[in-house]
Write a structure and sequence with these properties.
Chain lengths: 340, 386
């Protein structure tokens, strides 16, 4: 009954069902078999066997409006996004990054230098060296300011996918959710909200390294809840792992400022983008160990167990509100366009 | 931001919710059969869906949303009237959701896209401002909503209004529709939950003749999750004890008599007349029309609207619309999941039927909150705070 779309809309870039459908309809054609995790897995990146290790590779383009926002800018966002995608595959030691820049005619040099400084500082923080890049300029009006593309590679001995959940596994979120999306929205729409709404954008490979060191093979699935938020991540993990997921609404850490802003705008914080968080699936026996390791790290102090996987209702994500239960809706359209 | 304001509302206490669910279960066990009850308010459905309350209801209890959304029940030809006015050159002002509501074939949004002057307003006073800003043009306020909203329209009708301002009333009167549902042969609704905000105006007593006539108890409920659960407990009790009475479970806001000055204004300006509700057929006394002494304000009479709307109709309406089952959904005879279009061809961005258009419509609410299949059977232990 659903007709394939003929024109691309903003919702096709928002990390929800529409985007997944478009990728499946159009780009899966490109997938060819690889020894490892390839395009058809639609994971955060690919993993190709190289000797007794895996070469993990990921790429991401970044557009954001505004390009500087409370807590970060497009430079920090693009390094963090790529480093975090590598980390979500289990590869927490980036070997190298590339950066391609596409600029609109008239873009101020001072802004470009500021973004360069931010790229440099964030790469240093993540321990990820830039090794090559590319610069292009397009005419006025052919592009909105700047597009950054970063690619990252890393080696790892063990790949973690987003499909590894089994019934009984617990899910941990590494901190408060919704900060990035609501900071961008408040700034973009000049909402004049009180309180400190700041993006959480950060490279979290060090945090993930600590979790993997504590949990070892019992860390079975990871996903960073960027576009589509925690809900998007859980829906993907539930579908790919063929498990049902039950999450406890009251166990999800959300800052009061974010909750209030979400309430005001009628937005569910579980659908809002994050840029410095991970959802980690862990075998129940190791959950407390991993949680303790996360909480010992400055970026994981508010980590919490918030959900579990079950055999019933594979693919479904069920929200326990404390008063009752319902299906958590899957992010569908454009909640916050162009935030990462 | 105070934590207790955002997280620890006393109306959201899980232990109390469980106790209320257990009380419901006891009443249902004593009855020993299935019971269907209906609420008639989009705001109630919002809370029920948002908090997943259906999952804690006893399996023998069916909680159904009835015709509780003023946008949904506005009939196609009523939209056609507004579209005809807009296409005829008048400014048409109305509330947001009305814009996308399909008429027989076109919506006000379609007319707007073709250049008609359609304004979204948040109050009737804003519509009057539009009239003052365009003194040379006719400005029509398409007045939708139930008795609560109708009071605001009535109040402005009693003031000194610009001569180019008129009202296209599509206001509806809920108690009349409850009567229709209650008398319908197919529905076996045994009790009603009435909307607290409407009862603030009309008072709980307004439902007493209805309860006596139909034998269906009515409980007036507030909008917090525990308000709703407590109201259902009371309703099951009244059904169990065969007491077709009216109970006010929202006494912190609602009185038996209601807001008498507001009622006086309402009935001074409007009178109930028979009218068609979308999906429900003719409802005796279901429409609130302007009384004859306000004819000068009545867009239908003033702008000769008795009305050829054929220009905006397309009787060969799309096949999709024929598949839409909003009517049976609003009558409580079907759920959104019974509709082949729900969540597929009919989504909030591209609604086919009225129930998906309005944020108060059943389909829209279910879609927003992930749909509402029966989750009562899913056990799974909840995750701890860790």
């Amino acid at each position: 009954m659903e007709k394939p779309v003929q024109k691309i809309g903003l919702k096709h870039g928002s990390g929800g069902r529409a985007m997944r459908q478009l990728i499946e309809d159009v780009f899966l054609e490109l997938a060819s078999p690889v020894d490892g995790v390839g395009l058809s897995a639609l994971d955060d990146g690919a993993a190709i066997r190289v000797g007794d290790q895996w070469l993990v590779i990921t790429t991401d383009s970044h557009v954001v409006h505004p390009i500087v926002f409370p807590g970060g800018d497009i430079g920090r966002l693009s390094v963090s996004g790529t480093v975090n995608d590598l980390a979500m595959m289990g590869a927490t030691e980036p070997l190298a990054l590339t950066c391609a820049v596409i600029l609109e005619e008239g873009f101020p040099r001072a802004d470009l230098e500021r973004i360069r400084d931010s790229l440099k500082a964030t790469a240093l923080e993540a321990g990820a060296p830039f090794v090559t890049g590319d610069t292009k300029v397009m005419g006025k009006g052919e592009l909105d300011g700047i597009v950054l593309n970063t690619t990252g590679v890393a080696l790892t001995r063990r790949v973690v996918t987003d499909a590894g959940l089994r019934p009984g596994d617990l899910l941990i979120v590494t901190g408060q959710v919704g900060d990035h999306g609501m900071a961008i929205m408040a700034k973009r729409h000049d909402l004049g909200l009180q309180g400190d709404l700041r993006s959480d954008v950060a490279p979290i490979n060090g945090l993930i390294r600590a979790a993997l060191a504590a949990g070892g093979d019992d860390v079975v699935a990871m996903k960073d809840p960027t576009r589509g938020g925690v809900s998007g991540s859980l829906h993907e993990m539930a579908a790919k792992g063929r498990v049902g997921i039950v999450l406890t609404e009251q166990a999800v850490p959300v800052r009061d400022e974010v909750r209030a802003a979400c309430d005001m705008l009628g937005i569910d914080p579980l659908l809002v983008a994050n840029e410095g968080k991970a959802v980690i699936g862990v075998r129940a026996a190791s959950a407390q160990k991993v949680l303790a390791a996360l909480r010992a790290h400055p970026l994981g102090r508010d980590a919490a167990v918030f959900a579990h996987a079950m055999a019933e209702r594979p693919g479904a994500v069920i929200l326990d509100t404390g008063l009752g239960r319902r299906l958590l809706s899957e992010p569908e359209g454009e909640l916050l366009p162009r935030i990462c | 931001m105070a934590k207790d304001l955002t997280q620890e509302l006393k109306f959201r206490d899980p232990a109390k919710a469980r106790a209320l669910a257990a009380a419901m279960q006891r009443n249902l066990d004593a009855l020993g059969r299935e019971v269907s009850v209906m609420h008639v308010c989009g705001s109630h459905e919002q809370a029920i869906a948002r908090f997943g309350l259906r999952a804690v209801l006893p399996p023998q209890l069916k909680l159904i949303m009835g015709p509780g959304c003023p946008v949904c029940v506005t009939d196609g030809p009523e939209v056609d009237e507004a579209v005809a006015l807009a296409q005829g050159g008048a400014h048409v002002c109305t509330y947001g959701d009305m814009l996308r509501l399909p008429g027989t074939s076109r919506s006000l949004a379609d007319a707007q896209a073709d250049g008609a002057r359609v304004h979204v307003v948040y109050s009737v006073a804003q519509a009057v401002d539009v009239a003052r800003a365009h003194p040379a043009d006719q400005v029509v306020f398409m007045a939708s909503g139930f008795e609560t909203t109708a009071v605001a329209t009535a109040a402005i009708a009693l003031t000194d209004l610009p001569r180019n301002f008129s009202i296209l009333s599509v206001h509806k009167y809920v108690p009349a529709a409850m009567e229709v549902v209650s008398r319908s042969k197919e529905s076996n609704i045994e009790g009603f939950i009435a909307a607290g905000h409407a009862a603030i105006i009309t008072g709980s007593a307004i439902f007493e003749p209805f309860a006596a006539r139909t034998g269906s108890p009515v409980v007036v409920a507030g909008f917090e999750p525990l308000d709703i659960l407590a109201a259902i407990v009371k309703l099951t009790e009244l059904i169990l004890e065969r007491r077709p009475e009216v109970f006010n479970a929202y006494p912190r806001c609602v009185t038996r008599a209601g807001n008498l000055p507001a009622q006086k204004v309402l009935w001074r300006v409007f009178e109930p007349r028979a009218g068609k509700w979308r999906g429900i057929a003719e409802v005796p006394d279901g429409n609130l029309d302007l009384r004859p002494e306000f004819a000068r304000l009545d867009a239908r009479q003033r702008l000769g609207l008795s009305l050829d709307t054929s220009a905006v109709r397309d009787e060969a309406a799309a096949g999709l619309e024929r598949e839409c089952i909003c009517g049976p959904i609003m009558m409580g005879l079907a759920s959104p999941h019974d509709c082949a279009l729900f969540g597929k061809a009919c989504v909030p961005e591209a609604p086919v039927g009225a129930c998906m258009v309005s944020s108060e419509g059943t389909c829209r609410i279910w879609h927003t909150y992930g749909g509402a299949p029966d989750l009562r059977q899913v056990e799974g232990r909840p995750a701890g705070q860790g």
